[in-house]
Write a structure and sequence with these properties.
The complex is a heterodimer of chains A (about 170) and B (about 290). With about 170 residues, chain A is α+β, with helices and mostly antiparallel strands. Chain A contains 6 helices and 5 strands. The relative contact order of chain A is 0.15. Chain B has about 290 residues and is an alpha+beta fold. The chains are: A alpha+beta (about 170), B alpha+beta (about 290).
Chain lengths: ~170, ~290
């Protein structure tokens, strides 16, 4: 099958590539761009491990074709830390609050939480649980994931870490 | 899981999309949000040779008022429906129902048109469209036509859409002021289809039910309009006795298949429970 040229922006960098129309976005990111932080979990759009940010919305990259992302701006977990390695407040939150055990779901969790906090900078616990409903974790029981997102929301708002940890 | 190969088309106008669909009535599929079609393609249960992506067609997106009706473009996402403040005020049951579809990521892609046109009995919006007496606008090589939601569904994945025909917009009559509404959905987990669900729209006058429509999700090969159940309520004061009779009549028209959500008789009884709960909540929300 003939390949088609696509141009898009990934983590702030312009990308041009040739893709087969049937190439899924998650395979394009992982195998052509070597951005393996985005994980394939269920491969059926349930688990959210493959969540990335695309033109200001959270999407499951296992259920979109790369060719649909023509012209799009995509952010993946590799685009979250600063150029100097400074962790994003969400990454810091997941570390400080033990928001992961095996870590497989974490990139999808962080990318979904990133968009959630863009839409609602100070979500209640209930709003976090509802907003994260498309991401499954088999280790933590979610308690510390909620706390990690609360930590990040507080940090972004400039509040002290102690308040967030309570 | 990787889909079979296909040629990808990204038309910029509805006319172009209609021409492409008409040129590929059997070997082409339109792509909207893709959250039903792409999983089917990954499982190779669907293998179109031509995929016609509707995502770049501006005229298929958005919500507008046309006289006494609301017109919603087919590729308006469920997230956009939820976020529209005018729609949330005018037809709040649409927001309440859309929030119970799948999860935030799926709703950011999934469209109202895909949800109603696919003919999947598990989808939540078809029964609601029947309850709201919505009209679907279809476009094909021979022009456009309108089909009522109540006449659209013929069987599981079988609808009034002809080969190569596209659903372009959904028209919903503006519901009366003071109406009561509720969508009650029983599901095992977030992202699951309904074990059973019920949509209710009603109005009260003088303390009695003046108008009522009831739709049922995922308890038959098609969504159902529970006509006899709604008719039993007209002129009755809202209350347990009237709701129980309506639920009994709603249960009588279900034909669920047993699956992981439970045996058929359980799903039938749950349809009745959803009807009772939706009626009670709708009546409490309606202005007397």
């Amino acid at each position: 099958m003939a390949k088609t040229a696509i141009a898009l922006t990934v983590n702030g960098e312009a990308v041009e590539a040739l893709v087969e129309p049937r190439t899924l976005l998650v395979h394009f990111l992982r195998e052509q761009l070597n951005l393996t932080g985005t994980h394939i979990g269920c491969d059926t759009s349930h688990c959210g491990a493959c969540t990335v940010d695309l033109d200001g919305r959270s999407v499951k990259s296992c259920t979109l074709f790369a060719i649909q992302a023509e012209g799009a701006e995509i952010r993946t977990i590799e685009g979250m830390a600063g150029a100097d390695g400074t962790l994003h407040p969400l990454q810091e939150g997941f570390r400080e609050m033990h928001g992961l055990q095996c870590g497989f779901c974490t990139p999808g969790m962080i990318m979904r939480a990133y968009r959630l906090l863009q839409e609602n900078p100070r979500p209640t616990e209930d709003e976090i649980r509802t907003g994260m409903a498309g991401n499954l974790c088999r280790c933590t029981g979610y308690q510390n994931i909620v706390r990690a997102i609360q930590f990040a929301a507080a940090k972004i708002a400039g509040e002290s870490l102690q308040e967030a940890a309570e | 899981m990787i889909p079979g190969p296909f040629a990808y088309h990204r038309p910029r106008s509805l006319a172009e999309a209609v021409a492409l669909c008409a040129a590929h009535p059997d070997d082409g599929r339109p792509l909207a949000g893709g959250h039903s079609l792409v999983p089917m393609m990954k499982l190779r249960l669907a293998a179109p040779d031509h995929l016609i992506d509707l995502g770049a067609i501006a005229e298929l997106k958005g919500v507008r008022r046309e006289g006494a009706a609301w017109v919603i473009g087919a590729t308006t996402t469920q997230a956009a429906l939820i976020a529209d403040p005018n729609l949330a005020q005018a037809i709040p049951i649409l927001r309440e129902t859309a929030l119970q579809i799948a999860d935030p990521q799926v709703r950011s892609c999934g469209t109202i048109g895909g949800n109603v046109a696919n003919g999947d009995p598990g989808n939540d919006l078809p029964a609601l469209m029947m309850c709201l007496d919505a009209v679907f606008r279809l476009a094909g090589a021979n022009g456009t036509r309108e089909v009522k939601a109540r006449e659209f569904y013929q069987g599981a994945y079988v609808t009034a859409l002809g080969p190569g025909e596209l659903l372009t917009a959904i028209t919903i009559p503006h519901p009366p002021a003071g109406h009561g509404y509720a969508y009650e959905k029983l599901k095992r987990k977030i992202g699951d289809y309904a074990t059973a669900a019920a949509a209710v729209m009603l109005t009260l006058a003088g303390g009695r039910i003046a108008t009522c429509a009831i739709g049922l999700t995922n308890v038959a090969p098609t969504p159902l309009l529970a006509v006899e159940a709604a008719a039993a309520l007209i002129g009755q004061p809202p209350g347990d006795a009237a709701f129980a009779e309506a639920a009994r009549r709603a249960e009588a028209i279900t034909e669920p298949t047993p699956d992981g959500r439970g045996p058929a008789d359980y799903r039938t009884r749950m349809a009745g429970v959803m009807v009772r709960r939706a009626l009670a909540r709708a009546a409490a929300r309606a202005s007397a």
